[in-house]
Amino acid sequence: MSELHFEEDVILLDLDVEKNEQVLERMGRNLVDLGYVKESFIPAIVEREKEFATGLPTTSVSVAIPHTDSIHVNKKTISIGILNSPVDFVIMGDDSETTPVQIVFMLAMDEAHSQLTLLQDLMKLFQDESFLQQLIVEKDRRNVKQLIENKLNLYSFKGGEL
C-alpha cells in the first residue's frame, strides 16, 4: 500500500464557483498541477460524478466525495474544497434530487480497497455536525489540515507513518 499524501497544498479555501463541475475542475486542476493525478483525472472525475453522484446531505452542511478510478492517480491524496457558497450536487443514490454542497472531499486513491476504507471513515466524520461547521468557517489551511488529521485515521493510509 502506498503512502497517503495530505499536505496544505491540497486544501482549497474560499472557492467561488457556480456549478459542481467547476468545483471538480478547480480541485482536479490543483491536483494535476501538484503531480498527484494525471491529466486524465479531471474529465474522469467529472464524468464519474455525472454517472454516480456523490452529494450527501447532512443536518447542516452537505458534502460531496467525488472520486474516480485509480488509473488516473499518481500519488494517493485527499483534497478538501470549502466553498464560499453552496453549489448543487446530485444526491448519492437518488438521481432526482440535489443537495447544496459546501465541503468537497475529493479522493485520489491508487488502490480500490483503500478508497473504500477512507469512504467509511468519512461517513463517520460527516455525522459530526460541529466538525463540519468548524470546517466551513476556518480560514487557515494549516488548521483545516490539523482538524482533518485529528478526525481521520490517516495513519492507516500512510502505513503507520505521519
TrEMBL record:
This is PTS system, fructose-specific enzyme II, BC component. It comes from Oceanobacillus iheyensis (strain DSM 14371 / CIP 107618 / JCM 11309 / KCTC 3954 / HTE831). InterPro entries: PTrfase/Anion_transptr (IPR016152), PTS_EIIA_type-2_dom (IPR002178), PTS_SugarTrans_NitroReg (IPR051541). Residues 4-151 form the PTS EIIA type-2 domain. SUPFAM superfamilies: Phoshotransferase/anion transport protein (SSF55804). PROSITE patterns: PTS_EIIA_TYPE_2. Pfam families: PTS_EIIA_2.
